[in-house]
């Protein structure tokens, strides 16, 4: 159990029988007739919905420790996403609501940490950035111009703005949360 005043971003807590991940928490020292309070934004792990809570600093909340297991993404059938444990070959499914914006970044055979609660999958711990290859990109306007961007199509069908020097076949790093270009991934060439 943890007091509401001790809530931190990233913690997983049990509220009303459902698992919630704390997105943000802040303490407000009240004044006058209003007592102090903790304001927290939590995301329901099962549905992805955000709730805003106002708690008393002394309220006790059950903190939950999740197990993380790296699993291999197999396929999706429109309703669920299927993952396999590479050690036991056991398959699990996660509802599409949990995947949300991560769906477009999933690649077959990609290994992703899956969060488990009492052996049941509840969410995924997607990496902050992924590497994708450029499927098509128009030629650059100027060879060394880096202040202007052009639209490139990635291997997953997503269009993203990239610098002029990016060409077809390059591998780029994309931020998952925003879908923005971060950098070109340089591959070492061996002779």
Automatic annotation (TrEMBL):
GO terms for cellular component: cytosol. Pfam families: EFP (PF01132), EFP_N (PF08207), Elong-fact-P_C (PF09285). GO terms for molecular function: translation elongation factor activity. Residues 68-122 form the Translation elongation factor P/YeiP central domain. CDD domains: S1_EF-P_repeat_1. Keywords: Elongation factor, Protein biosynthesis. InterPro entries: Elong-fact-P_C, NA-bd_OB-fold, Rib_uL2_dom2, Transl_elong_fac_P/YeiP, Transl_elong_KOW-like, Transl_elong_P/YeiP_cen, Transl_elong_P/YeiP_CS, Translation_prot_SH3-like_sf. Belongs to the elongation factor P family. GO terms for biological process: peptide biosynthetic process. Residues 130-184 form the Elongation factor P C-terminal domain. It comes from Paraburkholderia silviterrae. The keyword Secreted does not apply. This is Elongation factor P.
């Amino acid at each position: 159990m943890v007091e509401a005043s001790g809530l931190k971003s990233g913690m997983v807590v049990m509220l009303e029988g459902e698992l919630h991940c704390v997105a943000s928490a802040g303490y407000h020292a009240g004044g006058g007739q209003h007592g102090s309070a903790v304001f927290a934004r939590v995301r329901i792990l099962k549905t992805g919905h955000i709730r805003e809570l106002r708690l008393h600093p002394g309220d006790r909340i059950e903190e939950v420790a999740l197990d993380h297991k790296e699993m291999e993404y197999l396929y999706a059938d429109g309703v669920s996403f299927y993952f396999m444990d590479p050690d036991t070959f056991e398959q699990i499914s996660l509802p599409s609501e949990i995947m949300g914006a991560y769906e477009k970044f999933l690649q077959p055979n990609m290994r992703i940490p899956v969060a488990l609660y009492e052996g049941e999958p509840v969410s995924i711990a997607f990496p902050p950035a992924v590497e994708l290859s450029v499927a098509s990109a128009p030629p650059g306007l100027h060879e060394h111009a880096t202040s202007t961007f052009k639209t490139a199509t990635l291997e997953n069908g997503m269009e993203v703005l990239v610098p002029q020097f990016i060409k077809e076949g390059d591998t780029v790093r994309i931020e998952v949360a925003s879908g923005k270009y971060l950098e070109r991934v340089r591959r070492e060439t061996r002779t």
